[in-house]
């Protein structure tokens, strides 16, 4: 690491050892074959003793690992997991933007990405036509049971997690069409799993319909929903079926793009 970088880190109030450790991680991440201690020290402009001390500390925490057969250091399992978690959460909106824009242009409707939060489902990315009406803007949260995005996540959760969530949350009525009985919701979730996509037919907001499909992570667990919403005048019940199949295919592409594994 250059003196300029170190000086800048000190001016920003950063801890020098953390700046150096992240510099090492960046260096290792850029070389899939790993680096020797000498190469790490040279690239980061650190003394060998300093580089070795930081590497052994990060090795104990599993952020890096040492291959004794090649004497090379590389990113460890914890570092990989941390990067994967980032890619599959906050960065979903950015990674999914090309797919969202393509769907928006083809269908002329608002397309969103949402993830589960402790109280419901939060929208983390969106592509929408100019002057279109939207049911939920990025950053807003809706109930799981009254939104297509929430229902498709619930439908693909592990049964124990789904039952635990439903036992803690009331199925509040948003409109006259909201599903408020747990047995009825259970039947709806079963139909969603079989169909491959979920539909919100004015259950959250009168005059608006939505359809959503699941996106899975690298362990085959549902991670997000890809959805399309619009007015009842534009999204007829007949059109929803075709859009649902289109979204399901797009969600599969997004699953592949984030290194996910489709559920069996």
UniProtKB/TrEMBL annotation:
Keywords: DNA-binding, Transcription, Transcription regulation. It comes from the Bacteria. Transmembrane segments: none annotated. The keyword Plastid does not apply. Residues 15-77 form the HTH iclR-type domain. InterPro entries: GAF-like_dom_sf (IPR029016), HTH_MetabolicPath_Reg (IPR050707), Tscrpt_reg_IclR_C (IPR014757), Tscrpt_reg_IclR_N (IPR005471), WH-like_DNA-bd_sf (IPR036388), WH_DNA-bd_sf (IPR036390). Residues 78-260 form the IclR-ED domain. This is IclR family transcriptional regulator. It comes from Sphingomonas naphthae.
């Amino acid at each position: 690491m250059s003196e300029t970088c170190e000086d800048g880190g000190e001016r920003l109030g950063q801890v020098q050892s953390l700046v150096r450790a992240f510099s090492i991680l960046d260096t290792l991440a850029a070389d899939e074959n790993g680096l020797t201690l000498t190469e790490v020290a040279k690239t980061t402009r650190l003394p060998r003793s300093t580089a070795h001390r930081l590497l052994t500390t990060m090795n104990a925490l599993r952020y890096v690992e040492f291959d004794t057969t090649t004497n090379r250091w590389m990113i460890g399992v914890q570092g990989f997991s941390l990067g994967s978690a980032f890619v599959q959460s906050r960065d979903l909106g950015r990674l999914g933007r090309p797919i969202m824009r393509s769907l928006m242009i083809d269908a002329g409707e608002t397309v969103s990405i949402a993830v589960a939060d402790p109280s419901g489902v939060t929208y983390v990315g969106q592509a929408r036509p100019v002057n279109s009406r939207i049911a939920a803007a990025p950053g807003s949260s809706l109930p799981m049971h009254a939104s297509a995005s929430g229902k498709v996540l619930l439908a693909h959760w592990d049964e124990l997690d789904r039952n635990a969530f439903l036992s803690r949350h009331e199925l509040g009525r948003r409109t006259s069409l909201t599903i408020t009985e747990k047995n009825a919701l259970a039947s709806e979730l079963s139909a969603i799993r079989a169909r491959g996509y979920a539909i919100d037919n004015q259950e959250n907001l009168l005059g608006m319909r939505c359809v959503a499909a699941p996106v899975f992570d690298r362990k085959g667990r549902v991670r997000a929903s890809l959805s399309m919403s619009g007015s009842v005048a534009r999204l007829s019940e007949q059109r929803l079926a075709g859009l649902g199949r289109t979204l399901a295919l797009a969600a599969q592409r997004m699953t592949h793009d984030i290194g996910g594994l489709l559920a069996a």
